[in-house]
User: What shape does this take?
Amino acid sequence: MEHSPLVEIKPLSTAMPERVEALLDAAFGTDRHGRTAYRMRQGCAALPALSFSAWDDARLIGTLQCWPVALERTSGERVPLVMVGPVAVEPALQRSGTGRALMDAMMDAAALYADGALMMIGDPEYYGRFWGFAADATGEWVVPGPVEQRRLLARGANGHAVPDGAGAITPDPARS
Ligand SMILES: CC(C)(COP(=O)(O)OP(=O)(O)OC[C@H]1O[C@@H](n2cnc3c(N)ncnc32)[C@H](O)[C@@H]1OP(=O)(O)O)[C@@H](O)C(=O)NCCC(=O)NCCS
Assistant: This one.
């Protein structure tokens, strides 16, 4: 697999929080906080073992955060899930392998440390093509805001299968 030769992947904790926020503003816009994905993990801290930063020498060029969420059934049962994203790459450097390098690092870590299946809101043409995310089990999931069902994706990890059937995606801050 080819990536930009300069990209180095490190834990997210190596990046200053203000720089991470500035990069997210550049990739998604400053109005990003009202998005459905933000509401799903409100009150949670990012999972350190599954969150990464991408560097070109000393310059932060990409970030990937993961969060603890759960699928809550009407019975009250809560199935732990790991929400992946945002994945953000500096706009001027997009489509040069940085997103793939971040996701590859996260998938390797998730195979060891994820305490639930992975879920995300993202483009199936990208996350399905390279990492096998799919929307087929998420049709009855309810999320706190608008989402295109084809972009509500999930994938098993570390022995955890994607839970199917109905439920609401809610934050699970106790696992942060
Ligand atoms: C989406 C994003 C993370 C991808 O990272 P990237 O470093 O730009 O992309 P990569 O270099 O890893 O892409 C590799 C391949 O995927 C393709 N690709 C990238 N983004 C894609 C998308 N959204 N849909 C379909 N294909 C995509 C590229 O064209 C490339 O294909 P090729 O190898 O056939 O040329 C990045 O572009 C970004 O930050 N975008 C803005 C924020 C966003 O939309 N994030 C996703 C939601 S969480």
Summary: The mean pLDDT is 95. DSSP finds four helices and eight strands in the chain. The CA atoms of residues 123 and 129 lie 10 Å apart. The longest helix spans residues 98-113.
